[in-house]
Amino acid sequence: MKSQLIGFLINFWISSSIALYFHSGEREEKCIIEDVPSDTLVTGNYKVQRWDIHKHDFLDSAPGLGMFVTVTTPSAEVILSKLYGPKATFSFTSYLSGEHIICLQSNSTRLVAFAGSRLRIHLDIRVGEHFLDETVVRAKDKVNEVNFRLEHLIEQIHHISKEQNYEREREEKFRNISEQTNSNILWWAVAQTFILISIGIWQIKSLRDFFITKKLV
Amino acid sequence: MRGWALALLLGALRAGGTELTFELPDSDKQCFHQEMERGLKFTLDYQVITGGHYDVDCYVEDPNGRTIYRETKKQYDSFPHHTEVKGIYTFCFSNEFSTFSHKTVYFNLQVGDEPPILPDMSSRVTALTQMESACVTIHEALNAVIDSQTHYRLREAQDRSRAEDLNGRVSYWSVGETIILFVVSIGQVMLLKSFFTEKRPGSGGAGT
């Protein structure tokens, strides 16, 4: 009974088509950037439809249509690269904090995409939320509404705290860049003034010696 | 028990939001579509994080094709709206005015109101217990904190992007200027020397 409910809840989330959608070419790769702190669960849910030239509409299910989902970490390492069906949920946990790039590309093997062939991709990405925790919490017998809601609030607080730590790291990086720029400017200004003066002296000396040898002075 | 879980899920689906960050190449346009009911309030926030002059064009169309919002070269904006027609709303970001800078754009579409943390709050006859009201207050406060954190995160990303640009520019310009300095000064001396070095014999140059 519980597993049926889990299945129902997940299915409900997947099949509800209230999500945002956008169009893309058949072989085009569309990427989304997610800037997340470390140890954060990112869940994505998508549905893809293909344009049917005969019915002039987007078909709900095209056989053999799948999407390659590729997730790249800030250190350019690929942590997820799998082929999913036309409707799927994928998730990954970030172990580095930074910009992760989630790319979707269809596995369509048509060599020449004829005019009007497009894909409609419904996409929803959630950061730091756990949908399956409901069943874990409700497995305990003494659970009431407020208790469950408190768990949700505690999770939100943890997420906020992680984001703040990440923010502190980034601010430090930002401050380093600013200080580097500042010292760069100062150092170069001093060096260029020195070069300017010494080159000026060299020029005058060199010209004077030249004119003396030429017996003009 | 099961009833309220379902009600919560339904409530969450009636309301909800999507936030995405994507890269918009130069001379390109990216459109998003969302189906919405009539009489809903939605808010579209967007901000350009990196790229060029940090600005983008944006327009929103209702299901009848009428443009309900259009702005050009905006760095960030927030657009609230009450839907009057049921159907598919389109909003597009355009970088067509730029020829070589691709932009990273963040947008957040918030549809409907935030679902209440206690699902059957509105239908309750008795007053909320202290625990429950505390939960509600905390939830609202946390939502405000998360919104404000997102705002600061985006601002920081944009400022850091500008600082990195500045650092790069200072380094390149300094090196370039030093090279130009050497080339020009040595060139000047060589040129002057060449004026006074004649190939004809016996000529020493001008002078009385």
UniProtKB/TrEMBL annotation, chain A:
Q: Which Pfam families match?
A: EMP24_GP25L
InterPro entries with a match to the protein in the record:
Emp24-like, GOLD_dom
Name of the protein described by the UniProt record: GOLD domain-containing protein
Q: Name one GO cellular component term.
A: endoplasmic reticulum membrane
The UniProt entry's sequence similarity note says: Belongs to the EMP24/GP25L family.
The yes or no answer to whether the keyword Nucleotidyltransferase is present is no
| Subcellular localization(s) per the UniProt record | Endoplasmic reticulum membrane; Membrane
Q: Which residues form the GOLD domain?
A: 29-127
Annotated transmembrane regions: 185-204
Please state the span of the N-terminal signal peptide per the UniProt entry.
Answer: 1-19
> Which coarse location class describes where this protein primarily resides?
endoplasmic reticulum
**How does this chain sit within the bilayer?**
Single-pass type I membrane protein
**UniProt keyword terms in alphabetical order:** Endoplasmic reticulum, Membrane, Signal, Transmembrane, Transmembrane helix
From TrEMBL, chain B:
Enumerate the Pfam families for this protein: EMP24_GP25L (PF01105)
The subcellular localization recorded is: Endoplasmic reticulum membrane; Endoplasmic reticulum-Golgi intermediate compartment membrane; Golgi apparatus, cis-Golgi network membrane; Membrane
Entry protein name: Transmembrane p24 trafficking protein 3
Q: Which residues form the signal peptide?
A: 1-17
A cellular-component GO term for this protein: endoplasmic reticulum membrane
Keyword Signal annotated:
yes
TM spans (from-to):
170-192
Q: Which InterPro entries match?
A: Emp24-like, GOLD_dom, GOLD_dom_sf
Which key words tag this protein in UniProt? Endoplasmic reticulum, Membrane, Signal, Transmembrane, Transmembrane helix
Supply the source organism for this entry: Anser brachyrhynchus
Q: How does it sit in the membrane?
A: Single-pass type I membrane protein
Question: What is stated as this protein's family in its record?
Answer: Belongs to the EMP24/GP25L family.
| Domain GOLD positions | 29-111
